[in-house]
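Please produce the structure of this protein holding adenosine-5'-triphosphate.
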Amino acid sequence: MPSIDVSDYLLAGTTPKDKKEKKKKLKSETLDDAADSPTTEKKSKKESKHKKRKASDDEDRSETSSEMGEPVNVKPPKSEEKSKKKSKKAKVEEPEEEKPKEDPNAVLKFRISAPLRAKLKENGIESLFPIQAMTFDTILDGLDLVGRARTGQGKTLAFVLPVLESLTNGPAKAFRKTGYGRPPTVIVLLPTRELAKQVFADFEAYGGAVGLAACCVYGGSPYGAQESKLRRGVDVVIGTPGRIKDHIERGNIDLSTLKVRILDEADEMLRMGFVDDVELILGKVKDVSKVQTLLFSATLPSWVKGISSRFLKPDKKTVDLVGNEKMKASTNVRHIVLPCSSSARSQLIPDIIRCYSSGGRTIIFTETKEAASGLAEALPGARALHGDIQQGQREVTLAGFRSGKFLTLVATNVAARGLDINDVQLIIQCEPPRDVEDYIHRSGRTGRAGNSGVAVMLYDPRRSNFSKIERESGVKFEHISAPQPLDIAKAVGQDAAEMITKISDSVIPAFKSVAEELLNTSGLSAVDLLAKALAKAAGYTEIKKRSLLSSMENHVTVLLEAGKPIYSPSFAFGVLRRFLPEEKVESVKGMALTADGNGAVFDVAAEDLDLFLAGKCS
Ligand SMILES: Nc1ncnc2c1ncn2[C@@H]1O[C@H](COP(=O)(O)OP(=O)(O)OP(=O)(O)O)[C@@H](O)[C@H]1O
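Below is the modeled complex.
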């Protein structure tokens, strides 16, 4: 970082340092900064892209908490107990070393019937994730349960599988109505429409395999189709609280024979102000002792724990795979923070995507709907998703993102919870969110089901503060400076060079004469001309500098060294006014004091740098 030593101004009688020396300093520090930038990571990320880490790696370090009820006794599933007894015999017959390693969570070890097993196999699932394995028996046996595991650890199937088993072979079977017009036996409440649709898809796929019907109801879509499906009769209703309440009030949903109720992302639902709707829906059940209630989330703030005791029975079980562990966010995600002023966001984000998305999908979170729309317009190929967009369009957008029609989604918190989208490699949060829960859920849209991912949070060094998020989430953020366009260009230049070597020789005759003409007339060497051609092929027509402080293009971060305390930014501005014209002082951006209080950092336009470095000598 270039620096201006103004101690001479503050300590009378000292001589100004040599101007050239500062320029040298500027050069070397710019290079050092560039070395910090993450271009090399592109490769290593690509290499590790498909490497899966076992979810159990994380869960091994987890604990079962008794904060919210009696902790579940982590015993092997019932069928496994039997198989253990059997395996004693097998031990005698087989030498130890030849025995294949047993997977304690293999699907076969649980009371999962053949059609569901086949469906799981079809979806590539041979083994249950820890939260699924640890809650399966409790749920299938009909007990109330609070389940918590980090994002992307399979909480949905943790309730879908045992509940379906309970309806077809377990305790809920006896109470389940059958035939046309049957009322639902299971109700699932979720905070967002997108999430309701996603959970419905699981109930439909797995429930369909065992002959059960599910229906999804949410706001923003017509009542008609939902009503006729409900009237025909369903076993499971999945939806958002507002629309479910409406259907109850219209007489379309009868909860008199309800056996299981599930609150997914319970804290968000209650935080969003659905608490009255949720209470009304849950209150429709006359004899709560006969109903099983399940509550799941990756985050369970203490106030939710309080409310949960109103909905769940006193003998509820709790399986908490996060517990008192410091790290509450996904451990499969690389958590990064990067300084960036709001005006530099749209310039910087494409480079962050180039560096960290490994060619996969990116979700960008903004705090407001307007910011989401604005950013989606500014970023090529991006689409917006937020609550002011019509439901039909929301569905089209999400389907397009899921299917890979476009790779960048700019969203508000509507996409923060639960959404499970394949190959989301990168999450960008435009500023630190207000609540730690938001950070955990947003960053958890990547690094799912054992895959790895990157979450970058931008912050304005003058305005935003992420220490609360860091403290409460337990995340130790990696601090990086903005990727420099020069480094990114070098990396993509390699790709362009590789691309060119693969081009067929058949193109040469067509372009040779114009190439020769260019070489003879341009005044540039063959290497320089080729470099320009490569730049164009890689999409570059110029390369700008980016400041470290606010990530602004064509700006440079400067350090003002006073040699004694600078008490406030206005003091620093006062120092600058002593040797710079007013309009240049006004153009300074992001003035902030250094940690030791003896200096200040700020951004200046690259073209003014010499003026700033020279100004004090004039
Ligand atoms: N046993 C399993 N084996 C392999 N993949 C699984 C298994 N269980 C779930 N998955 C996959 O893991 C992904 C994440 O699951 P899910 O969406 O249920 O996570 P979650 O814990 O609810 O996350 P969030 O807290 O973000 O809502 C899904 O793609 C799901 O299909």
